[in-house]
Write a structure and sequence with these properties.
This protein is an alpha+beta fold and 233 residues long. It is built from five helices and eight strands, in the order αββααββββββαα. The two termini are 22 Å apart.
């Protein structure tokens, strides 16, 4: 997919997306009587003992959902009739760092530590800077995880999580360092956007399927995006 081709992709009319999956939750009702036999009492105790386990399972599901945003829906594998396109993509951009990159990171950290200590007299920030530099170095060295994506009629599956189309107001194809990715712009003000990387041979099909369901609007990289691009992060 070439850079010029992104300008020719058609802007679609907005269409209504499918309703989110809603998992029905059933609760067992325990009937007790004043005159109960011993086996009935044992059954009641066994039923009560399973309640914390169910609660723990619900809490675990809620914590998994929060990693993808409040509106992410735990979902089962979509039907083949709903699947529009499947692909795999990296979690983020990745490039091999040379020793010069790590040396420049160490030098920049030392300079900022000197400024923090002598100019601002902040011992806490001086100690925090090398910790952040080490974390950045480990993150930069770690290869990205390969993520499974599935675009369906209901929404986009990221791993096994469904993100509905109506969570997003638009999308765009962004090019950084000659690598294309899709930026999904959320409707909620403080919700994080999603950057979706894809293989070049599947790009046109993916964009066409998204363009039939979301409006395509230009997204300009902000200051943070430009800094990360300069650092090759």
């Amino acid at each position: 997919m070439q850079d010029d081709s992104s300008q020719d992709w058609q802007k679609p009319a907005e269409t209504a997306s499918g309703a989110p999956f809603q998992a029905a939750v059933s609760e067992a009702e325990l009937n007790t009587s004043a005159e109960s036999t011993q086996p009935a009492s044992v059954d009641a105790e066994a039923t009560d003992s399973t309640a914390p386990t169910a609660s723990t399972g619900l809490n675990s599901a809620e914590s998994d959902t929060s990693a993808f945003g409040d509106d992410a829906t735990p979902a089962v594998e979509p039907d083949d009739s709903e699947i529009l396109v499947r692909w795999q993509g990296p979690e983020h951009l990745y490039s091999e760092r040379s020793m010069m990159w790590y040396a420049a990171l160490a030098l920049a950290t030392l300079i900022m530590m000197a400024i923090a200590y002598f100019a601002f007299n902040s011992l806490t920030f001086t100690i925090l800077l090398p910790v952040m530099a080490v974390a950045l170095g480990v993150y930069a060295h770690r290869p990205p995880e390969i993520i499974d994506y599935t675009l369906t009629r209901k929404g986009l599956y990221v791993r096994d999580r469904l993100m509905l189309y109506d969570q997003f107001k638009s999308f765009d194809v962004v090019t950084i360092n000659n690598v294309h990715h899709i930026a999904l712009i959320p409707r909620k003000r403080f919700q994080l956007g999603q950057n979706i990387y894809f293989p070049e041979e599947s790009g046109e099909k993916i964009v066409d399927m998204l363009a039939a369901r979301l409006p395509m609007k230009e997204v300009k990289p902000d200051f943070i995006d430009r800094i990360l691009a300069k650092l090759h992060l």
